[in-house]
# Entry
Amino acid sequence: MTQRRSLYISGFSHENPIPAACVIGGTLMTGAIHGGGRGSDPNEFSADPGEQCLLMFDRLESILTEAGGSWADVIKLSVRIQSVAVREILNRRWLEIFPNDNDRPVRQVTLGTTRDHILIQSEMTAILV
# Structure
């Protein structure tokens, strides 16, 4: 039997009693990772979608590091954006992290987040090698 390992990262939490991510064997999956503060308190979120995007990706990278992985291990990123305007910001950061078009994970973008003040959030799947 493979043991489950729950991951928590500094400065981030969900409002419900769940970890930021979970690893079983070599598979890493996250919950919804946003670019705000702890929980979903609107006062803990910048109104700037660029700041939320950067913080979201920083948190994803922290999760990867905590799990012993890197961006090279990511197989899929599912992203929710509050408005179509956030896609351009997302794409800029995406290309910084994954500049090689022959070495990128898949990505799915959906319009609409879980709260109005959450401008971007994502769920990540990685295969740790």
Notes: The domain at 4-127 is CATH 3.30.1330.40 (60s Ribosomal Protein L30; Chain: A;). The longest helix spans residues 49-67. The mean pLDDT is 94.
